[in-house]
Each structure stands twice: as C-alpha cells, then as structure tokens.
Amino acid sequence: MTRTKIGISIQGTSIYLDDRTVVLSEAIAKKWKIPTNQSLTLRFGSAKQDVKVVSASISNSLRLNSALASKIGLHNGAQLCLHYRQHTSTLSIGPLIGVMISRVYENSADRPFGAITAFCREMAEACNMFGALVCFFPPEEMRASASSVSAYSFSNGSWSKKTFPIPNVIYNRLTSRKYENLTNVQHFMKDVKSRFGTDIFNEKYLNKTEVFEALHKDSNLHGYLPESYLFKNYQMLKSMASRHQVLFLKPITGSLGKGIIRIRKESGEAYTCHFTNLSGARKQSFSSLTGVFQALAGKLKTQRYQLQQGLDLITSDSRPVDFRSLVQKGAQGQWSITSIVGRIAGTQHFVSNLARGGSLTTAGGALAKSSLAASTRVSVLGRLRKASLDIARGIEAQIPNHFGELGIDLAVDNSGKVWLLEVNSKPSKDDNTPLHHERKIRPSVKQIVQYARYLAKF
C-alpha cells in the first residue's frame, strides 16, 4: 500500500482553523485526490469527526486546532501515516497501536513500566520510524463501553499520560494470567473488538496441555511432539515410566523453568527426582515409583502438571542445550523467523532458562559445541527453522485465538531429531536481546510494529 507520512501540527483557532477545519499540504491533497472545502470524515483510532479540508502550500503536515485535536485524541508533533478512502470519504491518520501492560510505577520517571521500560521506549522509536503512534496502559485503565483510554506515550525524551481513542490494534503484553483474567480486562477486549473492530493479538496465555493437545490434532506435527499428557494419576505415571527412562513434570501454566521436576529410573526399582529451585536442583532418591508418586501427591493438589517424555538432548560441556525460536508476523501478515538462539543450562540446573542460570549463544554456536557430526549440524539448523514455522502455523490453525508472535522452545536429541518443548505466547523481551546489543531498534520490535500497521491497513 502507498503511504504518506505527515506531521501533526496543533495550532490556535484562526480564520482558517476552527474545530471543523483542517489544513493539509497541497501536494498531499493532490496526490491522494482529497476533496477540499467539502465535508469528509477524519479518523484516528476509533475517533471520527466530520471536517472540511483546506489545502495550503505547506510541507508534509496536517494542521488542526486544539479543540479538534483534543476531541479525537491527536497530539502535537506525532509523525503518522495518512491515507484517503474515496468510497467512504474517510481521511485516516494512524495507526494508533495500544499495548496492554501489567503495571505502571508512577513514582519512577526512568522506569515507569519496570523491566519492560526499555522495550516500550524501543516500540515508541520504531513507531516513529514507521509513521505510527503507540500508547501503553495497565488493567485499571480498561473498561467496557469506553470510547477512549488514558495511556502513556513517549515524546520529547519523556513519558506522559494522555487521553487517546481506542487504538486500531492492541498488543497484549500482560505478563500475568491474574491480570489477563480480570473481569474488566476481559470485558474491555471483547467490547473493543465488537464495537470498533479493534484487532487484539497475543490475546491470551497458552498452557502446555492446550498446546500439545491442539498440535496433536495435526498428524503432520506428530514427529515434533514428545509423548505428553496432563498428569492425572499413578497409573499414568507407571505407564509412562515403563516406556521412558526419564520423565519431566512441568507446571502447565509455569514459566522461567519454575517448578519443573525430572524423574529418572535408576537400577532396579529405584528412582531419582530433581526439583528445580533458584539455587539449583534439589535431589531426592526413592526406592520405588510408588514412593515418587506419594512425594508428588501434595503438589498435585495445588498445581496441574504436564507429564512428558524425557529426551536425550545434545549437550555443551556436559550441560543440556535447547533453542528458543522467536516466530513473528510482519508487514505482510505472514509467519517468519526473527531469531533462533541456543540456551545452555547452568552448571547446577537441568533447565536452560536464563532465570535459572542458563546462558545464551547463537544456534550455530550451540550446535558447534555439541557432539553432533559437522554434516548433521547444518541440516539441524534447517530442521529447527522448519519446525518453528510448522508449529506456529499449527497453533494458528488449531487454537482459535489471534497470535502475532510466539516463542517456540525446541530441543535436539543426539540423533539430530528436533522436538517441541513448549510454546510461549508472551515471549520475554529480554530473552531475545541480541547477543551483541547496541542502542538500536531490534528486528523483533520492528516486526511487531509492522504487523500492527498491516492489521490496521496502513
């Protein structure tokens, strides 16, 4: 789509400007065949206003008075895309992108959004580059039947709270199921979709059982799926233990490697369990599988677990390695791979999460240090890429929610086969930081903005 980027200039009322008149560059009016001196609809996000366009020999800008700007939520200095749809006589400015965030620290000017402040600023810079505007708002600002939202935006080097119309597109970065499931949040999302046609992506958390059951419906994906079930009883544990020497129990709503339990069959009837904690892994031995189950029984009352086949993973310096693939939609609305990184487990851990002492390396670097043959390593990289895209498309086909990015955790066994570990619909913005980070906008952030612009049809 052809786009024109314009600057928003808010001025006082004059003989040319009142709350129903805007002044637009003559060249842009001519390029888009925008009729002048007659009524048309000006649109920004969900806000609409009938206006008359006056053209003038000014550079790429749209001038409007403060009363009109306030009415539709436009703010001075914004650099936005403009297009005119002749069949509806609508002049659209935008897109306006909203980001749902968990909390705001109002007393912290430098880090108002905590650990994701740098990411939020990067998004603001990417929006400036692509002619969009982004605003950030926490759950307490979300209400059903609202026609506007109080949100934070970044301009002139600082954050400020302003009123915006309902955005064209909303990106859900709520990092807690507790916030996401709040009644007002659920009502807000449902309401803006139905009333304004707002697109919301990454609209929900995924859990491990949901992912494996959904992907299992597609026979083409079975090869990536370790045997995996929602853990229910001793009989299921016994059945899985008869087929696999190592089993994993993973909290179905867990993240950052929290609460994962590894069960390993030793000689005879003995078993060893490793329980993850912040300082490493606590080891406990049992003389029978019954003893293992009895030790787990208390945990099963407070947490649901996915019981999963253990895999014989490749290692680096005797430490397990897995891979995080960030798969995103971009300017054309298609899935593509933004990055694949290798994650090496910490010395005292059997999971690779950075929060558990793991370290990042390039996918190629992780494979180079593994025991895989050199000829296998090249084909494994290709298999990791294919698996990432196959799984993203499988999630989209089998789960009836809108996702624009997925963090897909993959493993490679010692034969070079690729396996799925889990899919994360809220991939951390820290885990995917480039290994040699400079002060520039990451490709992953650009993809989010370009996908939002695609959804908003700008």
What does it look like?
The protein has 458 residues and is an alpha+beta fold. Helices cover 26% and strands 34% of the residues. The strands form five sheets. Strands 1-5-2-4-3-7-6 form a seven-stranded mixed beta barrel. A six-stranded antiparallel sheet has the order 14-19-15-16-17-18, with helices on both faces. The longest helix is centred in the C-terminal third of the chain and has 25 residues. It starts with a strand and ends with a helix. About 1% of the residues have low confidence.
Report the mean per-residue pLDDT as an integer: 90
How would the global form be characterised? elongated
What does the largest sheet look like?
A: 7 strands, mixed, barrel
Helix content: 25-40%
Strand order of the largest sheet: 1-5-2-4-3-7-6
Which structural class do you get from the secondary structure elements?
Answer: alpha+beta
Kindly state the number of beta strands.
25
Radius of gyration: 26 Å
Strand residue content: 25-35%
Number of helices: 11
Low-confidence stretches: 352-356
Distance between the termini: 7 Å
